[in-house]
Amino acid sequence: MPAYDVQCPYCHAPQHTEHPGGYAPVYVNCPACEKRFILEPVASGVKTYRLNEAPCCSDPDCRATEMGDSGND
Description:
Elements: E1 3-7, E2 14-18, E3 26-29, E4 36-42, E5 45-50, H1 60-68
């Protein structure tokens, strides 16, 4: 399980967080400000997003909805 040292995009507190692997984005809860943000591994490292600023493909809930509803049942 890969681990990353990132900063919360809200309060900029440093934190160490684990990711299940791959490139799928995940939600992370900041222990300092108690806000949830998105962590997305990318080819050049990792990106973090505030919830209201992430593109749909980088938001785990939006991504699941978009990819799960393909219409090819």
